[in-house]
Structures are given as C-alpha cells and as structure tokens.
Specification:
- By secondary structure, the protein is mainly beta.
- Among the domains are: about 100 residues, Immunoglobulins (Immunoglobulin-like), CATH 2.60.40; about 80 residues, Sandwich (Immunoglobulin-like); about 90 residues, Immunoglobulins (Immunoglobulin-like).
- It contains 2 helices and 27 strands.
- A 5-stranded mixed β-sheet has the order 3-9-8-5-6, with no helix packed on it. It has a 5-stranded mixed β-sheet with strand order 13-19-18-15-16, with no helix packed on it.
- The protein is elongated and about 160 Å long.
- It starts with a strand and ends in a 5-residue tail after the last strand.
Length: about 425
C-alpha cells in the first residue's frame, strides 16, 4: 500500500508499507507503528509525518510527528513506539493512511489454540467416551462348561500312581502257636519280624542352663543436636513490574528463622546474575522480618531479579528521545516596504521524554538565510521569531522546517 503526498513541485513523498505490530496487543505492551517514506521527486525536501491515535476515551488520544528530510529518490523507515492503553479499539492515522488496532485484556483459556484445534480435541474426547461406553456395556467372559467336564474326566481316567497297601494278613511266627499279624516279609526278612530302619539312641543328659546376663544401660534413642538457626525466604514481590527509565522498583521478601537459636542472615539480591544489594537481618528463634530493596535502572529492557532462590522479573521502558515539532508559522507583515523588518515566527515543541537541543533553519528562496538553536525540556514549547530586512523588491518564498509561506517587498516609487 502506498500513499502519495506532494510537498512541492520538485519533491514528492510517498508513504509505503505501513504496519502495526503487534495487533492485537495486550494492555501495557509496546506497539510499533512503522512505514517507509520515499521521495520520488527530482529534488530533496522535508516532509512532516504526523501520527494520530484516537481511542473512544479522551485520555487515549495521542498525536506525534516526525520530520523526514530526503534527497531525491531517497527513502527512510520511520518508527513510532507507543504503550498500549486500556482495552479498546484505536484508530491510527499516519499521514493519509489509516488503520486500527485493538488492545485486549488477559487472554482467555479458549484463546490458547485456534478454533480448529479445539474441534479436533473435542472429536478425540467423543471417540474416547464412546469406547468407554462400549467396553462397559460388553458382557463379562465366563468359563466354558465343556472345559470343566473334560478336566473332570481326565482326572477320573488317570490310573493310581501307586497301588493301595494291602491289609496285614496273619503270618505264623516262630515259637508261637497262635496267629500273628504282619505285612508280607521281604525275601531277606524273617517272617513275623519287623525290620527297623535304624536304632534309636537313648536320650542323653542336657546341660544345666546358666544365669542370664544382667541388662546394660539403655542407649539414647536419638542423638542430641546442637542448637542452631534455620532461615527461609518467602513471599518475593516486585512492584511495580513495569516502569520507565529512571523510576524506582521496590523488591520485597520475608525472611524467617525456623531454628532454635538467634542468628544473622544475609539476604542477597541479584539482578541479571549480578549482586545488586546485600542486607543483614538479625532474627530471634521463630521470628520473621521483611526486607525491602529499591533499585533504579536507566537502561531499558527486561531484568531478572533473584533473592536466595526466589525470582521474578520487571521491565524498564526506555524514555522517548527528544522529538521536536515546528508549527504555527506566521509572517508579518506579508507586504513590506524596502528596508522594512519582516518577522517570521513559529512554535517549537518537544514531544519526547528527554530534554534536547534543536536548530531551526530559515530559508528564503531555497537558500539558508539564518539559523537559531534552542533547548527544550520534555513537553516544553517555545515561540521563535526571526527578524528579516530586505531592500530588494520582489517575492520571497519562506521555508522553516517543512513549513512554507511567502512575503513581498514592494518597490517605493519616487515621484
């Protein structure tokens, strides 16, 4: 997309590739609005690029400008950085180009994935639920009766591993006229007699038990430990977690003594791994004490803070450099006599957050007539006036930092 802006017949400026990043943005995030300004004319020139942001509330409206001086066929990328305000839709006007971006609150749980991902997850859940229902509805498996009958038949059909021992039969023994009962004798055994596998030894005498040993002293079940302090750190807080360069950040933590003796504890604060502060605290047994440390950082960026195992982060937003804007050009009188003083005035405003110096260059008929340097604090403006006297009659084109006008010096007729 390109927006053409004509400044004069010689210089022609075109705004190309305008972008807004990120879009949408979260509240407090840095939003970058950029574009490429190109001079397609045949001569150098200066173009004032104006940025306007309009929210629904008055306090969310913002205006910024930047002067771009380009040679013929030259181009330059211009970036504007702003801090996203409260949730709202903001209209962005950059020269003749306009667009919008939105600022939302915290991202909801359903914004984590794209809608089609949620549909896939829902389909998987439905399939799993159907599988569970099918498994629960299926009848439990039972033993087949045929297998039990077959096992019983197998057990009944097995032969005895060993024949039953026969009942003792009467066996005539030697030296007796009556019947004697016994088991059939082996070939090497006398009938009527039992073979003893071994002879039992008569029981011997047992030694008289001696006296029991006297019990010794009871040992302590647990060793005695020395009294000592035991420290712990909790409840680390960083406020605020986002500041501008040069503003203080307060880091708090609570140190507790959980031991049985008083002691001194050194709370060590590290910023990005470098020791920033050490605070010594004297604590009695069971006591707790907060420790507060204030740090100030001039360099913008994200900082990692750590206090003895507890950690957090805070962000330092760099200050906007001095940005000067020239407006309200006036020429008085616009018709002057030869040798009469002409006052050319304009207002210079510093829209940045840092003080700076600015040189105003006044051109007449394209040539530098004079310059003036001023110093302005952040948000300060100043009216600058140039007094010009010309004796040569004619038209004089005025150029002052992108603003143009003209005055005429009339010839005095002598009769």
């Amino acid at each position: 997309m390109a927006v053409t802006t004509s400044v004069s017949a010689a210089a022609n400026f075109v705004i190309e590739s305008p972008t807004i990043s990120p879009n949408p943005a979260e509240e407090g995030a840095i939003v970058t609005i950029s574009c490429v300004v190109q001079n397609t004319g045949d001569e150098a020139g200066t173009y004032t690029l104006e940025l306007k942001i309009n929210g629904t509330a008055t306090e969310t409206q913002f205006t910024d400008t930047e002067d771009v001086t380009l040679e013929a066929e030259g181009s330059q990328t211009v970036n504007f950085q702003i801090t996203a305000g409260p949730p709202d839709s903001y209209v962005v006007e950059l020269g003749d180009w306009s667009d919008y971006f939105t600022v939302g609150g915290q991202t909801s749980f359903f914004d984590i994935f794209e809608p089609w991902v949620w549909w896939v997850i829902a389909g998987i859940i439905v399939v799993l639920v159907i599988l569970v229902i099918v498994i629960v509805a299926m009848p439990s498996r039972k033993k087949q009766p045929g297998a039990a009958i077959k096992g019983k038949q197998d057990r009944q059909g097995l032969p005895y591993a060993q024949a039953a021992m026969p009942f003792p039969t009467p066996i005539p023994g030697p030296g007796s006229t009556g019947q004697q009962f016994g088991y059939p004798a082996s070939p090497n055994q006398t009938p009527g007699a039992f073979q003893m596998p071994e002879q039992f030894q008569p029981p011997g005498s047992f030694p008289t038990p001696g006296p029991f040993p006297a019990p010794g002293p009871m040992a302590e079940p647990y060793p005695q430990y020395a009294r000592r302090p035991i420290f712990s750190v909790s409840n680390l807080t960083i406020t605020p977690n986002q500041v501008k360069s040069g503003e203080p950040v307060t880091i708090n933590a609570i140190v507790s003594n959980n031991g049985s003796e008083a002691g001194t504890y050194s709370a060590v604060l590290r910023i990005n791994g470098i020791v920033e502060n050490i605070t010594d605290l004297m604590l009695s047994p069971g006591a707790s004490q907060p420790t507060t440390i204030t740090v100030i950082k001039e360099t913008g960026g994200e900082y990692y803070a750590e206090v003895d195992g507890l950690s957090g982060t805070f962000i330092v937003i760099p200050l906007v450099p001095a940005n000067f804007y020239v407006s309200n050009l006036t020429i008085a009188p616009e018709r002057a006599k030869q040798g009469e003083k002409v006052n050319i005035s304009a207002t210079v405003t510093n829209n940045g957050e840092v003080a700076g110096n600015y040189s105003l260059v006044l051109k007449l008929k394209g040539a530098v007539e004079t310059t003036e340097e001023i110093s302005l604090n952040p948000g300060e403006n100043q009216r600058v006036t140039f007094g010009i006297t010309k004796k040569t009659p004619g038209f004089y084109n005025v150029e002052l930092e992108g603003l143009t006008g003209r005055f005429v010096v009339e010839m005095e007729w002598q009769g």
